[in-house]
Specification:
The chain has helices spanning 5-16, 21-28, 32-39, 47-56, 77-105, 112-139, 143-168, 174-197, 200-223, 231-253. With 261 residues, it is mostly helical. The two termini are 35 Å apart.
């Protein structure tokens, strides 16, 4: 089914159910403007969005693996890159945290150049992972999460620059602002957690667990005192983030998704 027929069909089904556009978006976790544009035939939604709308309207859609133009949906390459980057970041960041404490204490086990490369990889892989989530918000709309993701990306770019200045100049050192950096990331992780809670209607417990873990980790980091305790919920939250990303890629691509064991 192509536009504008698709939009007309959704509008007819919604009106037959006696539902307003606002009531429909509550069931689908979309925004009103998106539904308005779909019904008006202004945009061609992705297959998952069509499936979600039809399910909310109690309509059986047979072509769940195709988009509105009859072409099988394919996940963006950035999503595959984000999965690989997330795994690399997960392990590299643990190594980076330990080395950072050594440099702050003045007893580094490696030279500054090597540490800079480790930091570069950690920041870069995390940004790629976040960009993957930004891409996912196009298929699974979540306004709060998208804002939180872009702010987190910006913060990573800024702190990466500050870290390099501290490591290669005498302007200041890593320890001078370490707690400020930790607290700022704590706030941003809590914000991310709040954003992921927006998926609780769609993905129920997994979104709730992930959001809660990141909010707890963020709160502990923000205080500074509980920064190391925050590693426990942060680690669990990162694992759930990766798992949910893999699941959503499979939802978008069906048989075109990569196989993960």
């Amino acid at each position: 089914m192509k536009q504008p027929e698709l939009g007309k069909k959704i509008s007819e089904l919604r009106k037959a159910k006696g539902m307003t556009q606002e009531e429909l978006v509550e069931k689908c976790n979309l925004n009103v403007r998106t539904v308005q544009r779909i019904e008006a035939g202004e945009v061609t939604p992705r297959s998952y969005t069509i499936k979600t709308l039809f399910e909310a309207l109690g309509y059986q859609w047979e072509n769940q693996e195709e988009n509105a133009e009859g072409v099988k949906a394919k996940p963006s390459p950035i999503l595959y890159a984000a999965i690989g980057a997330s795994i690399l970041y997960f392990f590299l960041s643990m190594f980076e945290i330990g080395l950072e404490t050594e440099f702050i204490a003045g007893e580094p086990s490696i030279n500054t150049g090597a540490f800079a490369w480790i930091k570069t990889g950690s920041y870069l892989f995390y940004v790629i992972f976040l960009l993957g989530w930004v891409k996912l918000t196009e298929s699974f709309p979540n306004g709060i999460l998208k804002i939180a993701l872009w702010i987190m990306i910006g913060a990573n770019v800024i702190w990466y620059g500050v870290d390099l200045i501290a490591m290669f100049t005498t302007a200041f050192n890593l320890g001078d602002y370490y707690m400020i950096k930790v607290s700022s990331f704590g706030f941003l992780y809590a914000f991310l957690g709040l954003g992921y809670l927006g998926y609780k209607k769609q993905f129920s417990s997994i979104a709730t667990i992930m959001g809660a873990l990141l909010m707890v980790a963020g709160a502990l980091m923000f205080t500074g005192i509980g920064a190391f305790l925050a590693l426990i919920p942060w680690t669990l939250g990162e694992i759930v983030q990766i798992a949910l990303m893999i699941y959503l890629i499979q939802k978008i691509g069906g048989r075109n998704s990569p196989e993960f064991t």
